[in-house]
């Protein structure tokens, strides 16, 4: 425990010493709902993190990480968020792409791609969802056809809800490589450069006015023969394994942000008298309880040897936090009252307004509420699976 | 940092689960409920004497095992899941912590030792057990006499009083201080069992019509302070919350088993999405409540007392809400048989309402949390 405290102090000191000067502007920015804020400076910040060896600290040392334990990674996330560390431009590379390459990539792929992620110089985005493959991810229609001369793969189709594609260098794409295949069969997992002919990126304006998501159109765009992860046809397995690397450690950092939002709500309620309403007080208390439970829920779910209960709890986590956060958004606006109706540069208010709006996405992306409930029922409780339709 | 049961805790859990599954069956509960008995005598003997559950959190110097809140919460959760008809909560979570927190050295040695050895069921006659702070009011007056004290007063509801071998009575002295008196069941007090809706936990009234007691009956180490009561009540609330989430899980397990067998329209009703989603939402609430209960148990004694108290308030809120939801869903999802006497949902439903009324309503606990968050002592 004392080692952990020393480590905590180390992170805190580093953040305090480095999130200053030109980077001070980044404090508390680039979070949920404004993932596209100040992108150039946030990329520079990634390189600053890299100089402190704080990118990819959970990766094994042989691949350039610090090999931190889960407990240490949690501490890092907490202190990073507590200090106001901005939303991470590199988190898809660090949290998803890197671990997938370490597990399934060729030596050549590791050599070519891991350094860019570690150094904060190459940014990745995730090409999974499509207009007709949202919850039903197996319904992917993007096609990859092998060029018989070069062995490269030519990709055509559309991806959507691609976070930060317009600010990224590379995309990993799940596409159908076997003509006539359906569902999870016949898929391929490809690494593709975004700056090439045949790739078009269209930002999507969101409910709060920002554009974190994009549509990405492919029209004969090229993935190099050596940029297939796993075997052609094995894409589903790689795609699912990638999702499994998100162990939820970053959620403890996310919770720090939630705590800051709740603190803001309390502060504003005290100022504007909303704290005199017994109903508001009960809702604020309920929010505190939900957040405290969320913290312990995450800490139990990080157990290395999950029991039946903790496995079920892990499945419940996304539903719990996203619905809690959505409710918090409404509470924030109810506390603001009519002030909440007015758009302003007043930073505290703007943060809560953005949260109110963007939290509506929380219960949709990464598996909608309804899909989450199916997963909990089927995988957690062993209830019968939903029948598939024939359309 | 990462919350998981130790191998020892896991073992306690597995063995207790197996034992209760066999011993606290539906038939065993019904023997108590249908005959209006105070408790399951055989089960209580096994738990207290043979298995040593009452010794779990009692310090080693008094003959206990010196384990902590987590172990007790594990056992309370399991006892709750089977609606075990035993005075376990009152003895281990209500009375023992009060003796430990406010008792004299002699009282600790005598009574904690007896509880640890499984020789004694004990309860506490708080004036108002429904209050978030039951120690705030005192219903019994204590006047000094040449040989001891004379106790006067009535406590309307004391849980497990009719089964307890001893009751601890908080009483107001003439100087305004609060003292604790330990009265054996043969002590001359008038105990009247009440006919209760939840037959799994007996309630009786206690009358002390000018009862003369010896000076040795007083067991506190000097006037009991608010902090001493608060410390003991934190443990009582945590134990109750654990019991509540257990009862919720018990009702849920029973419901899942039923809907997996009940067939309508040529399929089990568990295959309908409307039902799956209700069950999944309940699973989310169970995850939330269980995490908070065991998180609060692990943090107890590590976090500062104020923080810990708020977490336990929170645990009671989610546990009370959850227990009721699980019980009402059990009735609803059992359909027609859900509101019969023959099937078990009503046992869980009645326990849910009865437990939620103990030691503070959800609203009272949330008021306490809000007062701390706004730093205004409960403003409106």
Using the coordinates above, name the CATH class of the largest domain in chain B: Mainly Alpha
According to CATH, the homologous superfamily of the largest domain in chain A is: Butyryl-CoA Dehydrogenase, subunit A, domain 3
The mean pLDDT of chain A is 93
Order of helix and strand elements from N to C terminus of chain A: HHHHHEEEEEEEEHHHHHH
State the CATH class of the largest domain in chain A. Answer: Mainly Alpha
**CATH architecture grouping of the largest domain in chain A:** Up-down Bundle
Number of domains of chain B: 3
Low-confidence stretches of chain A: none
Specify the helix fraction band of chain B: 40-55%
The largest inter-chain interface, given as chain pair and residues per side, is: A-B, 54 and 46 residues
- The secondary structure category of chain B is alpha+beta
Note the gap between the termini of chain B.
37 Å
Major sheet summary line of chain A: 4 strands, mixed
Number of distinct beta strands of chain B? 9
Number of domains of chain A: 3
CATH topology of the largest domain in chain B: Butyryl-CoA Dehydrogenase, subunit A, domain 3
**Known CATH architecture of the largest domain in chain B:** Up-down Bundle
- Note the beta-strand portion of chain B: 5-15%
Describe the structure.
The complex is a heterodimer of chains A (391) and B (380). Chain A is an alpha+beta fold. Chain A folds into three domains: 2-89, Butyryl-Coa Dehydrogenase, subunit A, domain 1; 124-239, Butyryl-CoA Dehydrogenase, subunit A, domain 2; 250-380, Butyryl-CoA Dehydrogenase, subunit A, domain 3 (Up-down Bundle), CATH 1.20.140.10. Chain A contains eleven helices and eight strands. In chain A, strands 1-4-5-8 form a four-stranded mixed sheet. Chain A has a four-stranded antiparallel sheet with strand order 2-3-7-6, with no helix packed on it. In chain A, a hairpin with a 6-residue loop joins strand 2 (143-146) and strand 3. In chain A, helix 4 packs across helix 6, helix 8 runs antiparallel to helix 9 and helix 9 (308-336) packs antiparallel against helix 11. The radius of gyration of chain A is 22 Å and the shape is globular. Chain B is an alpha+beta fold. Chain B is 51% helix and 15% strand. In chain B, strands 1, 2, 3, 4, 5, 6 and 7 form a seven-stranded mixed sheet that branches. Chain B has a two-stranded antiparallel sheet with strand order 8-9. In chain B, a hairpin with a 4-residue loop joins strand 4 (166-173) and strand 5 (178-184). The radius of gyration of chain B is 21 Å and the shape is globular. The mean pLDDT of chain B is 96. At the A-B interface, helix 3, helix 7, helix 8, helix 9 and helix 11 of A face strand 9, helix 8, helix 9 and helix 11 of B.
């Amino acid at each position: 425990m004392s080692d952990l405290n020393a480590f905590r102090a180390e992170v805190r000191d580093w953040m305090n010493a480095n999130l200053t000067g030109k980077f001070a502007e980044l404090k508390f920015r680039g979070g949920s709902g404004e993932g596209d804020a100040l992108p150039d400076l946030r990329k520079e910040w990634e390189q600053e993190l890299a100089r402190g060896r704080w990118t990819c600290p959970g990766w094994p040392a042989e691949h350039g990480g610090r090999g931190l334990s889960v407990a240490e990674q949690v501490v890092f996330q907490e202190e990073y968020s507590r200090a106001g560390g901005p939303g991470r431009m590199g988190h898809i590379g660090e949290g998803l792409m890197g671990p997938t390459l370490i597990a399934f990539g060729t030596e050549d792929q590791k050599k070519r791609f891991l350094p860019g992620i570690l150094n904060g110089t190459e940014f990745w985005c995730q090409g999974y969802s499509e207009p007709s493959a949202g919850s039903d991810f197996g319904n992917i229609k993007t096609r990859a056809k092998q060029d018989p001369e070069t062995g490269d793969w030519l990709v055509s189709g559309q991806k959507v809800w691609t976070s930060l594609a317009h600010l990224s260098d590379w995309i990993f794409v799940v596409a159908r490589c076997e003509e006539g295949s359906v569902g999870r069969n016949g898929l391929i997992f490809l690494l593709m450069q975004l700056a090439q002919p045949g790739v078009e990126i269209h930002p999507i304006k969101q409910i709060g006015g920002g554009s974190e998501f994009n549509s990405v159109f492919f029209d004969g765009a090229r993935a190099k023969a050596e940029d297939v992860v796993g075997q052609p046809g094995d894409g589903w397995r790689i795609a699912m394994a990638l999702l499994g690397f998100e162990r939820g450690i970053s959620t403890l950092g996310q919770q720090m942000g939630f705590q800051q939002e709740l603190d803001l709500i309390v502060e504003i309620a005290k100022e504007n008298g909303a704290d005199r309403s017994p109903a508001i007080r009960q809702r604020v208390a309920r929010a505190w309880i939900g957040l405290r439970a969320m913290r312990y829920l995450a800490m139990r779910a990080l157990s290395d040897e999950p029991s039946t209960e903790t496995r079920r709890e892990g499945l419940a986590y996304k539903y719990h936090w996203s619905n809690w956060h959505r409710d918090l958004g409404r509470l924030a606006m109810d506390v603001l009252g009519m002030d909440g109706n007015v758009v302003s540069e007043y930073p505290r208010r703007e943060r809560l307004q953005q949260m109110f709006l963007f939290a509506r996405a929380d219960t949709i992306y990464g598996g909608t509420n309804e899909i989450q409930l199916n997963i909990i029922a089927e995988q957690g409780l062993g209830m019968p699976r939903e029948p598939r339709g024939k359309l | 940092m990462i919350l998981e049961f130790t191998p020892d805790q896991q073992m306690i859990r597995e063995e207790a689960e197996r034992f209760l599954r066999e011993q606290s069956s539906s038939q065993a509960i019904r023997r108590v409920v249908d005959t209006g008995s105070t408790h399951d005598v055989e089960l209580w003997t096994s738990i207290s004497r043979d298995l040593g559950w009452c010794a779990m959190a009692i310090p080693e110097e008094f003959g206990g095992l010196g384990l902590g809140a987590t172990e007790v919460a594990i056992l309370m959760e399991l006892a709750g899941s089977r609606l075990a008809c035993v005075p376990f909560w009152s003895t281990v979570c209500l009375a023992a912590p009060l003796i430990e927190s406010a008792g004299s050295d002699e009282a600790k040695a005598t009574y904690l030792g007896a509880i640890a050895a499984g020789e004694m069921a004990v309860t506490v006659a708080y004036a108002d057990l429904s209050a978030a702070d039951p120690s705030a009011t005192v219903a019994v007056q204590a006047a000094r006499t040449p040989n001891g004290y004379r106790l006067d007063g009535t406590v309307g509801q004391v849980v497990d009083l009719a089964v307890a071998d001893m009751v601890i009575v908080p009483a107001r002295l003439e100087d305004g201080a609060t003292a604790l008196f330990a009265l054996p069941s043969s002590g001359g007090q008038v105990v009247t069992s009440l006919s209760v809706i939840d037959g799994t936990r007996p309630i009786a009234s206690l009358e002390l019509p000018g009862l003369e007691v010896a000076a040795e009956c007083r067991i506190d180490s000097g006037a009991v302070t608010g902090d001493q009561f608060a410390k003991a009540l934190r443990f009582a609330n945590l134990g109750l919350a654990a019991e509540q989430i257990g009862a919720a899980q018990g009702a849920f397990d029973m419901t899942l088993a039923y809907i997996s067998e009940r067939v309508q329209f040529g399929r089990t009703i568990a295959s309908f999405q409307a039902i799956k989603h209700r069950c999944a939402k309940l699973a989310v609430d169970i995850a939330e409540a269980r995490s908070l209960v065991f998180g609060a148990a692990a943090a107890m004694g590590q976090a500062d007392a104020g923080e810990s108290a708020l977490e336990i308030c929170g645990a009671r809120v989610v546990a009370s809400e959850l227990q009721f939801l699980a019980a009402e869903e059990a009735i609803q999802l059992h359909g027609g048989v859900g509101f019969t006497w023959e099937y078990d949902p009503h046992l869980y439903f009645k326990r849910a309402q009865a437990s939620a009324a103990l030691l503070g309503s959800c609203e009272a606990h949330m008021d306490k949390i809000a007062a701390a968050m706004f730093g205004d002592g409960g403003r409106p």
